[in-house]
Design a protein that fits this description.
With about 120 residues, the chain is an all-alpha fold. The chain is about 80% helix and about 0% strand.
Amino acid sequence: MKKLLIFTGVAEAATGVALLVVPVLVGRLLLGTELAGVSVVVTRVAGIALLALGVGCWPGTPLCGMLTYNALGTMYFAWLAFGGEWRGPLLWPAVVLHAVLAILLARAWLGRLKTGEANNQTGK
């Protein structure tokens, strides 16, 4: 079961990276149509989510998966907000919310590293 979870995690993370880097190509290969406009933005958010899911599938790292999602989400949403083309009224609140969650998750993750709890859960 552990090997299957790791394999699926790697597959999802690889798909997530592809959606982040070349969303139009992946969209064409998966859906048979060209992605344009806001669909590229949504595809990249899906890529962030799949990458975080892949990280979370590694044994003992669900906290790291959520940290990955919130940190990358914060950066991408902030990049969108500063870019100006895609900016709705809830974009800045989303940036702030994801930043706060990322900070809280990072503190929890660092606390686990200091106490050695992370190593105990991964079987090391």
